[in-house]
Amino acid sequence: MKTKSRIVIAAIVALAALGGISQAQARGPHGGDGPWEMMGGPGGPGRCADREKPLTETQVKDILEGMIAWRGDDAKVGTVKTAEDGKISGEIIGTDGKVLRTMTFDAKSGRPVRPAK
Q1: pLDDT confidence bin for 34, thresholds 50/70/90
Q2: pLDDT tens sequence across 49-79
Q3: Helix H segments across 28-108?
Q4: Which UniProt keywords apply (predicted)?
Q5: What CA–CA distances, in Å, run from 109 to 55, 63, 79, 105?
């Protein structure tokens, strides 16, 4: 086999392997299904699939405390409550006792709800 043929074959094999790797990365760590699937699934295209169990108020409090710790703020979590529509809201309280921000989460999907503009 000539050198030129070997180079062409090696290039084809390398491109095929690279294509397989990029497809695996696009599918994500769970092969395109499971709780981390963002595209498609029960929620429809571009929607996050619902959680197996809805979020609880305790979990939302833990999420907010983690966000505060990640930012390095001296803030604390205030009142966490569930609304009638199933959304869970939690207050972030500053050192002066004032509400800095209220964050709302969709209990079914676990995602934060963006405030209306």
Answers
A1: very low
A2: 677 888 999 999 999 999 999 988 899 999 9
A3: 57-71
A4: Signal
A5: 8, 14, 21, 8
